[in-house]
Input
Amino acid sequence: MSGSPLSEQGGRHGGDPWPGRLEDAALLEGRAGFTDDLRLAGQAAAVFVRSPHASARIRSIDASAALGTPGTLAVLTGDDMAAAGVGNISQLRPFPGRGGAMLRIPQRPALARERVRHVGEPVALVIAESEGEALDAAELVSLDYEPLAAVVDLHDAVAPGAPQIWPEVPGNLALDWSSAATKDDSNAREVERSFAAAALVARLTLASQRLVVASLEPRGAVASYDAASDSLTLHAGSQGAQVLRDQLIGALGMPAEKLRVLTGDVGGGFGMKTSGYPEYAALLVAARKLGRPVRWASSRSEAFVSDNQARDSVTEAALALDRDGRFLALRVAALANMGAYLTSHGAFIATHNFARCFPIVYDVPHIDVSVRCVFTNTLPVGPYRGAGRPEANYVMERLVEEAARVSGIDPIELRRRNMIATAMMPYRTAVGATFDSGAFAAILDEALRQADYAGFRERRRSSERAGRRRGIGVSSFLEHAGGAPTEPAEIAFPGDGTVRVGLAVQAIGQGHASVFRRLAAREFCLNEAQVALVQGDSRLGLAGMGTVASRSATMAGTAIHGAVARVLAKGRRVAALALEAAEADITFARGFFAIAGTDRRLSLFEVAERAVELKASGEIAETLDTRETAQVSQTFPNGCHVAEVEIDPETGRVTLAAYTAVDDCGVALDEVIVEGQVQGGIAQGVGQALLEHAVYDRQSGQLLAGSFMDYAMPRADDLPRLAGTLHAVPCRTNPLGVKGVGEAGTTGALAAVMNAVADALPAGHALDMPATPEKVWRACRAVEAKKP
Output
């Protein structure tokens, strides 16, 4: 988002040069500590044997040859996991669907015993002195499979007579869910009446394809066991050590105090590193069995068939309009692929997260969203940047373009005519969300101005003269951010002249140490060097949800703000006792408590030391160390993105010629980090729109796009200069005024790019994602073939 007013003010943060990120030096100099950097004394190496079949019975496992190889220490199977008491890796709360029927949660094993249900499912764990020896031994584990019919396509999975993934789940239907279903279905009936009375109806069917997350750092873990305390420790990249710990103790059936999870630096997560995985439970069992640390590092090839994947849904949508183009009602029906097992958030994302976005920035009185969550013989689907919000916004903005076509109303005018006005805030939607703030029409106008929308016709004519097709696409979007409404923070004074800020959220690349250190320093009136951030340790005992749902700045920031306020309130009482003054006369400024109107004062750290002494003597009940749990409503980041593409009809290549983004994330705690978050999200959205697709063979269930030779990721030369600004409308539901921003770029990008592609193609040739050169070339050739 370079070129914005943010970079034209001669600096940021009140005119001072941007101080940079605390994290950068260690990352750039190779001093960061990722899971793969960890080496524990006496550690062994682990390799997983994985299923080559998408669906098969396991007749037998013979590990005798593997156990006879040099350096091999053990081979564990599903029987060992059962003997160790490992239960269901799928740890999630069921929730109801239509008619009160609950989400079906089948048993996901740490190592498969009788049946495998997707390619790459772990079947055995080989532990040896070195990784090379473990790999050699893994080749000798003999497995006898009985292949079974597999089903990977959504429509195939719900067709009559489809192969059943789970015998206890008829029709492969994990959940049939509806946002409109109440006891009397009144909202659903209102939707039906609105469609019956509508002058016009726009309809479309869209697919959001299966994606591989492909974080820069593959997963890995080191498990260790301490016999003296009979406790386990897991070092693993995660999006919240406490969250991962809680999932694993549920699967392992062990007390919370017997498992510690530690997370160091994390090379990207995007939601994929939220869930507990079978490998982690198996490694912990192995560490206890062997009495020594066990290390596993996923290869990139392994990650393609073992990490949670994303998206994979097909949606039918219809929008009812009156004769003036006013939106009357929206009906959305989706099929969502869960894969072979449920992840911690997969079904929730496909239902609640998806539905809660509607009607994005538009005033639609009646809405009915229904989703069928379906099991298939594919990798489980979990959260990925946006987690249901990009899919919803994509559907709505493509539908608005279709409504413009059927009504004959200019698409920009149609948007303006139906946008929720600022004066309507707070706005309660038909699916129960309440938008507290927003300036949707102003943001649309600003994006169009920055993108030079008015000059597009001349640019299109210029492209046509060069034999190219040019299109422009607009995406006005809104998402919800926040997830679970509570999040803790801890302020502690270790006695070394620093303030320690403990958090349950986990940095996975965003710059938490910089943002939260700066926030605490600002509120305490301290130098940033006097504040230290502590995270990534379940032993902190901070029960938070972790880094998901673009919630960290809002939730943890508010918790820090509240904790600081409590520290200062306690500090005034302590300072009053120490200075022999009335508490009402104590002020705090520049890091010092002072008696108003005098030079008698104590520093924050001196007061913290006095508090320890006073508590020891019984004069006060607690020190300045403070834990605060913030309870914060969801926020609703929004914006407008405009993409411009140019197509070469001879090759089908789509070039993203220009991209403009205007985003409302409320108050930006760090404008440069916000810009980076938006740009990163846009890149991932462009990847889905134009390049990425995890293709499975429809018959065998094999992942055909199982490496970077076949799975296309966006590169620097796929992106133009990303221009944009922040249009801040402060949030009204938290004291910092912030809204989430981590996923906004992806949410806005899908429809912006695909609307631009549709605008460039001949009428009637809109495509599903990804708009690959082959698809685009065929659409262009179809028109050429019709010419006389």
In short: DSSP finds 20 helices and 28 strands in the chain. Residues 46 and 296 are 5 Å apart (CA to CA).
